[in-house]
Amino acid sequence: MHEVGIVNGILDTVIRAARGAGASRAVLVTLRIGDMTEVVREALDFAWETFRDEDPLTRGCELAVEEVHPQSECLDCGEVFEHDRFHCRCPQCDGANVRLLHGRELDIASIEIETPDD
Fold it and tell me: pLDDT digit string (tens) for 32-76?
């Protein structure tokens, strides 16, 4: 389950950022995940709930996910279009010569923290 590795990497980043900002704890982490990454949301949530409490800075921290749907550009006719993971032919010219523009994202969009003054 590669979601465990993803979550551990995210938590390492969050902990470093929270410490660097002088946080007393991280409250919410928002991820942007593209459909093409094939991350299994249930496995991601399970790994998050399993590992977040190992560090006091992330104990109880919530996880939010913004889904990014695939979008490609046809290199033959220039059409930009959205599609699912399996059907990415151009709807304009039916060409298969396409370039993925969005859908492989796996980014931390934001980290909400509390500071000792809060």
Answer: 999 999 999 999 999 999 999 999 999 999 999 999 999 999 999
- Gap between the Cα atoms of 103 and 85, Å rounded: 9
Identify the CA nearest to 68 among candidates 83, 54, 55: 83
Q: Which residues contact 39 (CB under 8 A, 6 or more apart)?
A: 2, 3, 6, 33, 106
Whether residue 91 contacts residue 101, with contact meaning beta carbons closer than 8 Å, is answered with no
Closest CA to 37 of 77, 74, 5, 75: 5
d(CA 22, CA 18) in angstroms, rounded, equals: 6
Q: How far apart are CA 108 and CA 66, in angstroms?
A: 10
